[in-house]
Design goal:
The complex is a heterodimer of chains A (338) and B (451).
Chain A: E1 3-6, E2 9-12, H1 19-29, E3 58-63, E4 74-77, E5 87-90, H2 95-110, H3 126-134, E6 151-152, E7 157-159, H4 169-176, E8 183-186, E9 193-196, H5 209-213, E10 219-221, E11 234-239, E12 250-256, E13 259-265, H6 279-284, E14 292-296, H7 312-320, H8 326-337
Parallel strand pairs in A: 1-5
Antiparallel strand pairs in A: 1-2, 3-4, 3-5, 6-7, 7-10, 8-9, 11-12, 11-14, 12-13
Chain B: H1 18-23, H2 28-36, H3 39-49, H4 61-66, E1 77-82, H5 91-98, H6 100-114, E2 118-123, H7 128-143, E3 159-164, H8 174-181, E4 205-209, H9 210-222, H10 224-229, E5 231-232, E6 235-236, E7 238-245, E8 251-256, H11 261-266, E9 279-283, E10 292-293, H12 294-298, H13 310-313, H14 317-320, E11 328-333, H15 338-352, H16 358-375, H17 381-394, H18 402-426, H19 428-432
Parallel strand pairs in B: 1-2, 1-4, 2-3, 7-11
Antiparallel strand pairs in B: 5-6, 7-8, 9-10, 9-11
Helix pairs in contact in B: 2-6, 2-9, 3-6, 5-6, 6-9, 15-16, 15-18, 16-17, 16-18, 17-18
The chains are: A alpha+beta (338), B alpha/beta (451).
């Protein structure tokens, strides 16, 4: 099995594993090592050929495999580069690479509207997390941002192209999950946009998954639009016997009291949906009685959405270790910056 | 006076037609290869010749061919890249326009070597009339039995298809070209896998430039060793250079790799020197290669005469050298504004970015806007460092080389002509006059890029 070392931490992985997957394996093995995992905005494990576009997952291969004749070190997209035996990779340990990644984040944000206060995705947005970790406090971009009018693509999905980072995930969902793709990327360069062919509506049993895979607020659920900030809702795992053979009916219900505000797929620690759900489960079953509730959903993410502390384990951890005071927080921030 | 290999008969009457071409020794390489040589022997000749890709990257052609995967029962393809879109480059157009059969001949011979029964020419959309010339040449060759089943009784079948693109620069990148040829959006693929393993329709494919394939003809005719005698070191053979800008004699020249830069730019045989004033800067290989000051173009950092070879042009790295590129040579005299030219380049790359990966999609537009501001007398001193930082964050971080191509001209212009950028900041009123540096203003860049 090829052996790869990422930021000094070694792991043996099966042949054909990408650097990103190897890093995630390290992160799953020990939570303390999660810093080796590069951020990924366009890669999605369950969608084939995804990844490679956003460039946030770039890592520096500091030492290539002896089998690989290509000159190293060089930056590569970790999501699309396979591990070779003996490879050494720097993620956060290389200042040049950190700088390059900050550059990518800055580029992603120059045409993003930063309208988080009115965006339904805020709180569970990967771009928010990414810019918090790798961004600057101010942009150097002083020109007019490109804008698009929001459009309804079908009854249930709203497209805010202005917020889109062109990760192509929704295109891959339509290609690989649904029977027929009616949307895609039109135009090119910084005016490329995701769109349907002449205001075509996206009507398909699995189209709602485009909302789940969208890393930003470009595709949002019209049935949940402006209903609540996500961090005011309470997520619970639930299931039902879905009639659709391709849907397992394993979902997360986002509740306010006993009201089901929205239904999404279950996302793992990397923000990826474990099993895709059908539109009936997502949009039509907004009644708690239709579901068997399993228990609170552990949101294992660093963003604001995780701040609700819904489950017992977290609560206990909080009770036993008192919250840090302001000087302590400042000290931690200082350490982190250094 | 060097030997002409591709242009030897270019002025002969009727050379564009099959008859005239044949009368001047055309299709000899097909006869020789199909009748007397094994496919591998042709590849061996190309390897011996030291021929390097003429499209820009300069990768050894023989080596590229030998990488071609040869699984059983899977077709292989040869694709000729005639999407010549690099600003300043027009050598392939000239070749196809004047002597189209040399490309057809080269394609048959190369396909025989590679075992490809189908080959494609992907021509850029703006060259629609060239596509017609090529189509006619292919039709003539087919009627005369040079294409089709069992060519010359050798059992080798071959067919050539001409495909016109829609005029996108990005489709000159080999994987974007293949996507476009398949009828998809011309976005570059992520490599690996390389086209030699998984190319057109998922089959092993070789993508070569027009000039590269045309050069196979003299290599097979005269032998690889004979070809390798021309040139210096690893730069063998002849190269077409399309020269333009402030020179006396613009045009396409076939040079021996190894003539000195001084001879090329100043002798009457080639560019003929400057058109009236004095030279300031040179871009020797198309708009994406670094611009260098005239003196630096003539001499290497070691003080020796620079030669028109792949190695000599890039001597000194990016700090003091440049690149051979695609051979789109253009020179500036001292009346030209480098900032304006750099802005124009940035405008081009902004317009042509495919939008697939973020640094190039967002960064090219940003550079264009900052350069526009500088050029129109609204710039600030910080803008120069900002530009430097933006290009640094694009270069090397993108899927395909378009990001690098957009970054290099900006980087080199700032590196060598920082004083001109500073002048634009300190003399803001002066540069607001569109006639500064004696040039007419360009149209302000389009708000939206159109496909």
């Amino acid at each position: 099995m090829p052996k790869v070392t990422i930021d000094g931490i070694a792991i043996d992985v099966p042949e054909g594993t990408t650097i990103l997957q190897a890093a995630r394996m390290i992160g799953e093995r020990d939570k303390a090592d999660r810093h080796v995992v590069p951020p990924a905005m366009c890669y999605y494990t369950s969608l084939k050929t995804s990844g490679g576009y956003c460039r946030t997952c770039i890592v520096k291969v500091t030492k290539g495999s002896e089998k690989d004749p290509r000159p190293m070190p060089k930056p590569v997209a970790s999501c699309r580069t396979n591990v070779m035996d003996g490879m050494e990779v720097a993620n956060t340990t290389d200042p040049g690479l950190v700088d390059a990644r900050n550059g990518v984040v800055e580029m992603l944000l120059i045409n993003h509207p930063l309208d988080c206060p009115i965006c339904d995705q805020a709180g569970e947005c990967h771009l928010q997390d990414l810019s918090y970790e790798n961004g600057k406090e101010a942009s150097r971009y002083e020109f007019e941002r490109r804008t698009f009018e929001p459009i309804d693509i079908g009854e249930t999905i709203k497209l805010h192209m202005t917020r889109c980072i062109l990760c192509y995930r929704c295109v891959k969902v339509a290609d690989q999950l649904t029977d027929d793709r009616v949307h895609g990327v039109i135009n090119r360069g910084d005016v490329s946009e995701i769109s349907t062919y002449i205001q075509n509506a996206i009507e398909n049993d699995f189209s709602g998954n485009m909302i789940d895979v969208c890393p930003v607020g470009a595709l949002t659920d019209r049935t949940f639009r402006f209903a609540s900030r996500v961090w005011f809702t309470k997520p619970v795992d639930a299931h039902r016997n879905c009639e659709n053979p391709k849907c397992k009916g394993h979902v997360v219900l986002w509740l306010k009291g006993n009201e089901v505000l929205r239904v999404t797929g279950r996302k793992d620690m990397w923000g990826e949906v474990e099993s895709f759900i059908c539109n009936t489960c997502r949009f039509d079953k907004k009644d708690l009685a239709a579901w068997t509730v399993e228990g609170p959903r552990q949101i294992d993410r660093h963003s604001v959405i995780a701040q609700g502390h819904y489950n017992l384990e977290r609560k206990q951890a909080l009770l036993t270790s008192p919250a840090p005071n302001v000087p302590e927080l400042a000290k931690r921030k200082e350490l982190k910056d250094r | 006076m060097g030997r002409k290999l591709l242009f030897e008969h270019i002025d002969k009457p009727g050379i564009r037609g099959l008859e005239g071409y044949r009368a001047n020794g055309g299709y000899r390489s097909v006869e020789k290869a199909l009748k007397t040589m094994a496919p591998d022997a042709v590849v061996e000749e190309v390897k011996k010749s030291g021929l390097r890709g003429r499209g820009g990257a300069g990768f050894p052609t023989g080596m590229k061919w030998s990488f071609l995967a040869k699984p059983e029962g899977v077709p292989r393809y040869l694709v000729v890249n005639a999407d010549e879109s690099e600003p300043g480059t027009f050598k392939d157009r000239y070749l196809m326009e004047r002597i189209p059969h040399i490309l057809v001949e080269g394609m048959i011979t190369s396909s025989f070597a590679l075992g490809a029964n189908t080959s494609y020419v992907y021509i850029r959309g703006e060259y629609f009339y060239v596509a017609r010339i090529m189509e006619q040449a292919v039709a003539e060759a087919r009627a005369a039995g040079w294409l089709g089943k069992n060519i010359l009784g050798s059992g080798f079948d071959h067919e050539i298809h001409i495909q016109v693109g829609a005029g996108a620069y990005i489709c000159g990148e080999e994987t974007a070209l293949l996507e476009s040829l398949e009828g998809k959006r011309g976005n570059p693929r992520i490599k690996p896998p390389f086209p030699a393993v998984k190319g057109l329709y998922g089959c092993p494919t070789v993508v070569n430039n027009v000039e590269t394939i045309a050069a196979v003809v003299p290599i097979v005719n005269d032998g690889g060793e004979e070809y390798a005698k021309i040139g210096i070191g690893k730069s063998t053979g002849t190269k077409l250079i399309s020269a333009g800008g402030n020179i006396k004699r613009p045009g396409v020249y076939e040079i021996d790799l190894g003539v000195t830069c001084d001879e090329f730019i100043n002798s009457d045989e080639f560019c003929g020197g400057v058109d009236g004033r004095a030279f300031k800067a040179v871009v020797p290989g198309g708009s994406s290669v670094p611009i260098v000051p005239y003196e630096m173009f003539l001499k290497t950092p070691a003080g020796e005469n620079r030669l028109m070879t792949y190695e000599s042009l890039s001597e000194g790295g990016f700090a003091q050298g440049t690149m051979m590129g695609s051979g789109g040579f253009y020179a500036y005299n001292d009346a030209q504004c480098i900032v304006r030219s750099t802005w124009n380049h940035a405008r081009f790359y902004h317009h042509e970015s495919c939008g697939q990966c973020s640094p190039c999609r967002e960064g090219t537009g940003w550079m264009e806007k900052v350069l526009h501001r500088l050029e129109h007398g609204e710039g600030r001193t910080e803008d120069i460092d900002l530009l430097w930082d933006i290009q640094r964050k694009i270069e090397g971080n993108t899927i395909c080389p378009l990001g690098d191509a957009a970054a290099w001209p900006v980087a080199s212009a700032i590196r060598h002509f920082r004083d001109e950028f500073e002048y634009h900041v300190t003399h803001r009123e002066k540069v607001k006059d569109p006639k500064h540096f004696a040039r007419e203003p360009f149209r302000k860049s389009a708000k939206f890029a159109t496909a």
